[in-house]
Amino acid sequence: MELGTKKRLSRIFNPETKRAIVVPMDHGMTIGAPDGLVDIRKAVDDMNEGGANAVLMHKGLIRASGCADANADLGLIMHITASTALSPNGNTKVLSGTVEEAIRLGADAVSIHLNLGDPNEKEMLYTAGVIADHCNRWGMPLLMMLYGRGGLIRDSFAVDIVAHCARVGAELGADIVKVSYTGSPETFQKVTECCCAPVLIAGGERIDSTRKLLQMVHDSLLAGGAGLSIGRNVFEHPRRVDLMRAMNAIVHSGASVDDAMAIVGEDK
Fold it and tell me: Which 8-state DSSP code applies to residue 156?
């Protein structure tokens, strides 16, 4: 690993715990601005206040959010692939930025999204390989979000599908892999064991209980996970700063779910 990659990763991963709390904020490209991201500056400030290690967003929002100004200690990941829900091919992600742009904007890493099983999977795999090479040249960490989505996939949360996604990320050269949680520590351990890169869990669809969300984070760590990359379940939470503090306590201080719930101020 290049020295530059190591130094930039140290702004995303806590150097003591080797874990990370990333809050993705790239949703506006896909579905339009969700409520929690209408005021992007406020969203970033709240995540920073709660103790997030990094936020993730497209290049335009990096400028609009003031990440490099008021939140200099917060890690920044630039997302460089995109699609919209308005397209009939919304699962096909294409390049929307470059590693060089990310460097100019002060990013500490770049991220790309691949949907394995999509009819255009081969193009996304090709793009991932090219970007991995560019990242190696520049000493830029690469996060890959990988999901199983396609006509041949019946259950995108099945352990064999998620484990395959994680392994593909590692095989392509990702420094960080983001995949879905498989529902239990026992099954998720099969995912982390086959991936030689740190594995972060995605938040997925809205979870109807704060306790369920925190339990998922807690259990993923037991299975060897390296943290989380959760968006809407965090920034749309009514007590999002307290929720971020609670997640910080679990991920970086080993707090129990009950202790974390007390930080949020909820009991269910």
Answer: T
- Give catalytic status of residue 6 as yes or no: no
pTM of the model: 0.95
State the pairing for strand pair 54-57/176-179. unpaired
pLDDT in tens, 186-232: 999 999 999 999 999 999 888 989 999 999 999 999 999 999 999 99
CA 137, 138, 141, 147 dihedral sign is negative
Q: To the nearest 10°, the Cα dihedral for 77, 81, 84, 88?
A: -150
Look at strands 109-116 and 94-95 and give their pairing: unpaired
Of residues 118, 178, 181, 219, which has the active-site annotation? 178
Q: Would you call 147 a catalytic residue per the annotation?
A: yes
For 82-93, write each residue's pLDDT tens digit.
Answer: 999 999 998 999
Q: Is 126 a catalytic residue?
A: no
